[in-house]
Specification:
The chain is an alpha/beta fold and about 325 residues long. It contains 13 helices and 12 strands. The strands form 2 sheets. It has an 8-stranded mixed β-sheet with strand order 6-7-8-3-9-10-12-11, with helices on both faces. A 4-stranded antiparallel β-sheet has the order 2-1-4-5, with helices on one face. Bound molecules: adenosine-5'-triphosphate and magnesium ion.
Length: about 325
């Protein structure tokens, strides 16, 4: 499978008042053609910031892109012109943002918002755009479409808006869909239908998906590969079988042990002590060192680089460097 998107050594800082916060550090991962690559990790690990950095959607007044590149179909999106970025966003790379309320303009009816990218990128024929919108809204399980299209976001539930965001992202048949917790506001019963739908559409239009979630059980059912993020860095990356069945990084192991459906005995689920450090106080060594059960001296002093475990699996942990 060819690589569609390659994020290499990406570091991003946020300037907050006089402080420069090193939010993302040396992030590397790739998404291949027609694959689902999942980005997982606890809240605050930097999943959304990573996804927004890909097409430079972070707030310009605070974000600084310090190192790295984002290669998409041969173009470095971090160093390309604004015109090229605009052509890519929405058409080539489409987003389902984490918060459907913030995506939609409260003052515009749904119809105007959902057809906008189609009119810009595909055709100015409004009738055709509305037909496509109805087709997709029907696919995501909405009924009474004329009335939905003429409603304002405030007239709909969070679940409905999330489905509308999914349909909106698919209007231009993107090559890459970045889906940030796309089903978090949707009932569990409907969640699996929507996931099936995304996978069906993925194979119909040969789309790749960067699927962002903190739900490892969900991700293990739909992803081809997984990258585990911890406090602004990638802890481990590999195929689903590598990461779920043969996790190497102590953080991945702890995450898996805390998922009820993966636990051997659900009455004895483990929790990970402590919380994810914020970019204000990332440890000077390994970012997981403050919570890791396997921590040793070197982890407190240096940041581990990715160590190759197998052809497909890499883990950023000194345990494996020591073992070599
Ligand atoms: N606009 C911002 N200004 C300052 N800090 C921010 C901003 N947006 C995010 N951050 C910080 O960047 C870090 C990463 O946040 P991010 O939203 O990417 O986490 P996440 O992994 O998506 O979490 P969640 O699972 O809760 O969505 C956090 O420490 C967060 O506080
Ligand atoms: Mg997020």
């Amino acid at each position: 499978m060819d690589t569609l998107l390659s994020v290499e050594n990406l570091s991003v800082s946020f300037r907050v008042e006089e402080t420069l916060l090193p939010v993302l550090q040396n992030i590397s991962f790739s998404v291949k053609n027609a694959e689902v690559h999942a980005l997982v990790g606890e809240s605050g690990c930097g999943k959304s910031v990573t996804s927004l950095a890909i097409t430079k959607l972070l707030p310009v007044n605070i974000a600084e892109y310090n190192t790295g590149s984002v290669n998409y179909k041969g173009i470095d999106l971090l160093n390309t012109g604004y015109e090229e970025l605009l052509k890519t966003r929405g058409k080539e790379i489409a987003y389902i943002f984490q918060d459907p309320f913030s995506t939609l303009n409260p003052l515009q009816i749904i119809k105007e918002q959902i057809i906008e990218s189609y009119l810009i990128h595909i055709s100015e024929n409004e009738k055709e755009a509305v037909e496509k919108a109805k087709f997709l809204l029907n696919k995501v399980g909405l009924t009474d479409l004329d009335s939905r299209l003429n409603s304002y976001p405030s007239q709909m539930s969070g679940g409905m808006l999330q489905r509308i965001s999914i349909a909106m992202a698919l209007m231009c048949d993107p090559s890459l869909l970045i889906a940030d917790e796309p089903t978090s506001a949707i009932d569990v019963t409907i969640q699996s239908q929507l996931i099936e739908l995304l996978l069906k559409l993925k194979s119909e239009i040969k789309m790749s998906i960067l699927f962002i979630s903190h739900d490892l059980a969900l991700v293990s059912a739909l992803a081809d590969r997984i990258s585990v993020m911890y406090a602004g860095r990638i802890a481990e990356t590999g195929s689903v079988d590598d990461v779920i069945d043969n996790p190497k990084h102590p953080y991945t192991i702890a995450l898996i042990d805390s998922v009820p459906s993966f636990g051997k005995d659900s009455r004895r689920l483990k929790t990970i002590r402590g919380i994810v450090p914020s970019p204000y106080d990332y440890p000077s060594g390994c970012h997981f060192s403050t919570r890791c059960e396997k921590v040793f001296n070197r982890c407190l002093l240096h940041k581990p680089l990715p160590v190759r475990i197998s052809e497909s699996q890499y883990s950023s942990c000194f345990l494996f460097e020591e073992a070599k």
